[in-house]
Every structure is written in C-alpha cells, then in structure tokens.
C-alpha cells in the first residue's frame, strides 16, 4: 500500500468502527501560546481529553500534520523528519483497552498487511511507591492476541532505557518499561501537579532484521533503542489516572488516545527502514535527482534534508505562515534556507524551489483541499524567499571579504557567516581555499563549540515555550480570548469586511491579532477601535455558546471564523449579546475559553488598550493590546 492508501484506509477503518472523521488542525495552534506548533495529533484535542464534550461525538479519528522544530538537526538519517502525519483515533469516555488494542492490531496486520512476526510491544511497569499498578491489563490483551497468532508472548521487565541497553531483548515479545511508558502533560508521574490526569501507554514497534545494532547506542539492542533496528509505529495512551493530594486515583471517565506515524507505517509496508523511500517522499527525491543530475544513494543526507524541509515549509505556508525573523516565521525561514543550503551541496545553484515545491504540492493536493487552494500562493512565497536568500549569500560574501582582510579565517568567523548570514560552512571553507586564505587550525572545534552553545540556548528557549496542553485556561486568558472577539468585530465595523483574521496569540500579558488590511492604521482609527471595545465591555454583553452544523453557522448565521481553519460537520459558536436582545454583537466560531460577561474584562478598573499596531507581512497588519 502507498502512504496515501494507508491514510485513507485508516480513516475508513475507524469510520466503520463508529468514529467521526475530523479535519486536521492547523500546524500553528490557535490561541495557544504554550507552543509554536502542533507537535502531536492529540494536542488540538486536549480540552476534550480533559472532559469537554466534542461536537463530533465520543469517537474521533483523523490524520494530523505535525511539526517538531526541535528535530531539525536530526534530519538526515533514515527516520527523523520535522513534519509528519499522525494517524489518530480517540475514545472520549467510550471504549477502552480491549477494543483499542484489538483494532490497532487488526489495522496494521490485516489492512496494511505488516508481518506479524516483526511487531513487538511495550507496556507500563507501574510505580509501587505512587500506587500505580503495572499495566497487566494491556499485556494480557496482547498475550491473547499473540497467542491466537501462534506468536511468542514472553514478557521481559526492562525498567529504564539504560537498563535496556544492558540486558537487551532476551527473546521477549512484550516489554515493560517505567516512565517511558507513562503519559501526562507534565511528563513523569512524580512531576505531575495535583489534579493532572495521565496514564500508561502501550507502544508498537516494527523490527527491521536487516539493520544491524550499532553499539554506540548501547551494548545491547532493545525495542526502544535508537539504533534504528526497531522503529516505533504507534502509541496507545490510556488516560485513566488523576493525581490527588494522597496519590493517584482512577478517573471516572477514561479516554484513549492513539497516534501512529503514517510515514513509518508506510515504510514498514514496503519493508524499508528508510521513510524517505515512501510514496510521499520518493517523488521529491526524484525531482532533486533530475535537477542535480546526481543520485540519491550518493547524496542521501542532502536530499533527505531538502525533502523534509520543503514538505514542512509548504504546509506552514498553506496554514498561513510567512518567512520572518520571529517565532513560526523564523522556523519556516530556517527550513527554506537549510533546503537551499543543501541544494548548494548538490550543485543546484539556480532556482529550484518552484519545481521541487510543485512536486510536494502534487503529493498532497488531492487529500488536503487547502493545499490545492493555496499551492500557487505558497510556491510564489517560497520562491521569493529563495530569491532573498541568494541575495543574503551575496551579503555573506561581502562579509567574508572583510574578514579575509585580517589574513585568516577563524572558527568564530565561520560561525558568524553561518548563523548571521546563512552562509554554508562548506562555502566558507571553499572560499578560503580559493583565496589562499589560511584557516585557523582549530576552526572546526571553535565552530562546533559555538553551534553547541547556540543549540543549548535554543533548547532552553524551547523548554520555556513548548509545555504542551492548555497553557491558556486561566482567568486572564479567558478575558483576552473574549477581548479578541470584541476587537475582531470592532475592526470589521471600522475598516470593513476586507478585514479577515489571519491568526491570534494570547499570553498572560497581552493579546495579539493578525488581520488583512492594506495600510497602517491612523491614530484616529486606533482610538476608535479602543473606544468600541471598551463600550462593549461596559455594556456587559452576555457571552454564551452553542453547537451548530458548520454550514448553518458560517453561511446562514454569518458566524466569523479564523482564516485557514478547517471545520468538521459541527462547530461551537460563541455569541456576545446585549441583555434583553436576540441580536448578538459578536458571533464567532471558536473553541474558547471565555468569560461569561464582558464586564469581567473591566475588573480592577482596567480598560482595553492597543499597545502597538504594525505590519506582520505583506497585506497583513498586527495589533497587540492589553487590559491596563
């Protein structure tokens, strides 16, 4: 089966099991300041996993595009990517372990046709000190399934990852790990705050016997080893516990969250440990082979990096992100420029973005209509970035000229050229050779040290930003969510229907709102917007919500939605209505959270104030505002 066929088969399989197919969420979480990107299939569904009712029901399934920018330096091996698709299914207080484990086994073995002998399992070993039981239930279900298939059911207690490298597989089929097989937003059970839910998970791995264990990852191989001999295919999370003051208790409403990597499952289906060999990647590599007149086997790393980065950049563009020097736009710019840098390694010195990105779009436009709708716009955007970066390369040459005047090139020089000017290291070294410019003997050591320091800064920043989950559910977040609705309506009243939301971001200090408008706002317009919002706050509008069919909400009722968002069959609509009136001031599709009355925004004598109005990108303005 091709990756495209597997995706569709998965959705059909779970639809037949009573699941509603929900659309993918944007790669940029709407209104969630805790993370730059949607990094897992369950992330957009956290409110529902924590108890909120989902409009589509208690059984859900989809294929969610995900992006993990922290993996960017890992791209180049046979399995790491920054963007991937997560096949997901969820039970919100409905079925539990028996059905989930049985169905995922059926899908992988009967539908996809994977070799049953090469699928291995991990389960949670429990935590006696915290009163969390060993997940014998999942292991027993797996034992029953494996027994019927005539397969080994030997269980091995591994414990920690380090211990796994010491003791190895020991002929096991079901392996028990500790914290590796526990899921919560806070991580390990000991790190969880009171009230936080979590639970054990059961992971599935596929063995590639043709891959030899690399001892640099440990003396012995085990299913969670990083050597690439075993590849994780999916993870069944069973959220069944809640942390209390006296330990852990069982949740009254238990949930299932499954996530399976489409690319990895597709690679297993063709018995190839290289995910870049699948039908969603190999055509891009074929385009690069044609453009460079080089083969994949001899230029593997460069072609993998370009393929991954252009896929990710394409979907970021589809979801409304533009290259910039901040936040998501910075990551997008870095992806595109790294792709161009590695294209330089392949000898592709002329424009290549157009043809390569067209190949990316061809692979997705049938299954994701938004790709077909925005492909021309996105390709033009990336081509512009390529043109700008080639100018940046020229600036790098000028900087190198200044450095060369000192008579040598240091490791710090090469780092500055790379980090500030996006100048490829290989090009710096080649330029030095061409100019007979001596390189400091320890230039590479210094360069690597500078890179290490940069990665440490980046990871520290990432830990502060990517916490996952409901970062915005406090009182102040509710107020800013509500204020955002009021601002959107005020903008359309002041500037007309040409104003369309292009994104928002909320922190405890302020709200940020991006919208389409061709010119800078005047001081008079800004004051008018502030007055309008404060008037509605003073009117004490009643904030309420109800679910409606999507077609009715958007086309009959006229509810506003965010640009680029895709909705399922039903949506939640928030109305802000004056007391005694049937006509809402604001009507908008949104997942919340909000206050119940707009007067709450004025608590403590505060008023709505626009702090800054600026350009975000071509044709897009940005407002930052606060309750002061």
Structure description:
- The protein is α+β, with helices and mostly antiparallel strands.
- It has 3 domains: 3-276, Bira Bifunctional Protein, Domain 2 (BirA Bifunctional Protein, domain 2), CATH 3.30.930; 277-465; 475-627, 2-Layer Sandwich (Threonyl-tRNA Synthetase, Chain A, domain 2), CATH 3.30.980.10.
- It is built from 17 helices and 17 strands.
- Strands 1, 2, 3, 4, 5, 6, 7, 8, 9 and 10 form a 10-stranded mixed beta sheet that branches. The chain has a 4-stranded antiparallel beta sheet with strand order 11-12-17-16, covered by helices on one side.
- Helix 3 runs parallel beside helix 4 (136-148).
- The radius of gyration is 26 Å and the shape is globular.
Question: Biggest β-sheet, characterized?
Answer: 10 strands, mixed
Uncertain residue segments:
461-471
CATH architecture of the largest domain: 2-Layer Sandwich
What's the average pLDDT? 88
Predict the CATH topology of the largest domain. Answer: BirA Bifunctional Protein, domain 2
Estimate percent helicity.
Answer: 25-40%
Please compute the radius of gyration using only Cα atoms. 26 Å
Text of the CATH class of the largest domain: Alpha Beta
Q: Report the portion of residues in β strands.
A: 15-25%
- Helix-strand makeup class: alpha+beta
Question: N-to-C terminal Cα separation, in Å?
Answer: 58 Å
How many H/I helical runs? Answer: 17
CATH superfamily of the largest domain: Bira Bifunctional Protein, Domain 2
Domains counted in the coordinates: how many? 3
The overall strand count is 17
CA-based shape:
globular
């Amino acid at each position: 089966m091709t990756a495209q066929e597997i995706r569709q088969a998965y959705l059909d399989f779970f639809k037949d099991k009573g699941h509603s197919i929900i659309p993918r969420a944007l790669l940029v979480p709407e209104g969630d300041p805790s993370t730059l990107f949607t990094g897992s299939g369950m992330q957009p569904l956290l409110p529902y996993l924590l108890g909120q009712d989902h409009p589509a029901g208690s059984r859900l399934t989809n294929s969610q595009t995900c992006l993990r920018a922290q993996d960017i330096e890992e791209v180049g091996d046979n399995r790491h990517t920054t963007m991937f698709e997560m096949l997901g299914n969820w039970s919100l207080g409905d079925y539990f372990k028996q059905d989930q484990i049985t169905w995922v086994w059926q899908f992988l073995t009967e539908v996809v046709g994977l070799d049953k002998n090469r699928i291995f399992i991990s389960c949670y070993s429990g935590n006696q000190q915290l009163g969390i039981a060993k997940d014998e239930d999942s292991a027993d279900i797996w034992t029953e399934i494996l027994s019927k298939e005539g397969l080994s059911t030997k269980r091995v207690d591994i414990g920690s990852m380090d211990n796994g490298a010491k003791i190895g597989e020991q002929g096991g089929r079901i392996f028990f790990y500790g914290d590796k097989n526990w899921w919560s937003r806070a991580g390990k059970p000991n790190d969880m705050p009171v009230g936080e839910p979590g639970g054990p998970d059961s992971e599935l791995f596929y063995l590639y016997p043709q891959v030899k264990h690399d001892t640099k990852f440990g003396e012995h191989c085990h299913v969670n080893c990083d050597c690439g001999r075993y590849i994780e295919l999916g993870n069944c999370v069973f959220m069944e516990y809640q942390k209390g003051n006296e330990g852990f208790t069982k949740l009254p409403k238990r949930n299932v969250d499954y996530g399976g990597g489409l690319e990895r499952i597709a690679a297993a289906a063709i018995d190839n440990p290289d995910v870049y060999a699948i039908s969603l990647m190999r055509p891009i590599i074929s385009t690069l082979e044609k453009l460079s007149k080089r083969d994949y086997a001899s230029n593997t790393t460069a072609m993998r990096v370009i393929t991954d980065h252009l896929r990710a950049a394409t979907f970021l563009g589809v979801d409304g992100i533009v290259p910039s020097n901040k936040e998501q736009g910075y990551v997008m710019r870095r992806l595109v420029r790294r792709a161009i840098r590695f294209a330089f390694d392949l000898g592709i010195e002329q424009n290549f973005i157009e043809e390569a990105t067209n190949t990316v779009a061809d692979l997705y436009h049938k299954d994701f209509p938004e790709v077909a709708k925005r492909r021309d716009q996105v390709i033009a955007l990336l081509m512009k970035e390529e043109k700008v970066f080639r100018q940046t390369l020229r600036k790098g040459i000028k900087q190198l000229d200044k450095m060369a005047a000192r008579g040598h090139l240091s490791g710090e020089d090469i780092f500055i050229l790379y980090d500030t000017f996006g100048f490829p290291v290989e090009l710096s070294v080649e330029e030095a050779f061409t100019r007979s410019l001596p390189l400091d003997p320890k230039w590479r050591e210094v360069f690597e040290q500078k890179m290490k320091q940069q990665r440490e800064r980046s990871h520290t920043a990432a830990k502060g930003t990517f916490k996952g989950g409901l970062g915005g559910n406090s009182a102040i977040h509710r107020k800013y969510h509500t204020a955002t609705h009021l601002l959107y309506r005020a903008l359309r009243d002041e500037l007309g229907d040409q104003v369309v939301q292009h994104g928002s971001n909320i922190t405890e200090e302020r709200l940020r709102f991006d919208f389409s408008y061709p010119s800078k706002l005047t001081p008079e317009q800004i004051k008018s917007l502030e007055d309008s919002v404060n008037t509605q706050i003073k009117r004490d509008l009643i904030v309420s919500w109800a679910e409606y069919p999507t077609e009715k909400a958007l086309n009959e009722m006229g509810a506003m939605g965010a640009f680029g968002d895709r909705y399922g069959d039903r949506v939640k609509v928030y109305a802000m209505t004056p007391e005694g009136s049937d006509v809402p001031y604001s009507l908008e599709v949104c997942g919340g959270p909000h206050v119940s009355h707009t007067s709450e925004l004025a608590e403590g004598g505060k008023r709505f104030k626009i702090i800054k109005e600026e350009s975000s990108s071509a044709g897009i303005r940005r407002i930052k505002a606060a309750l002061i």
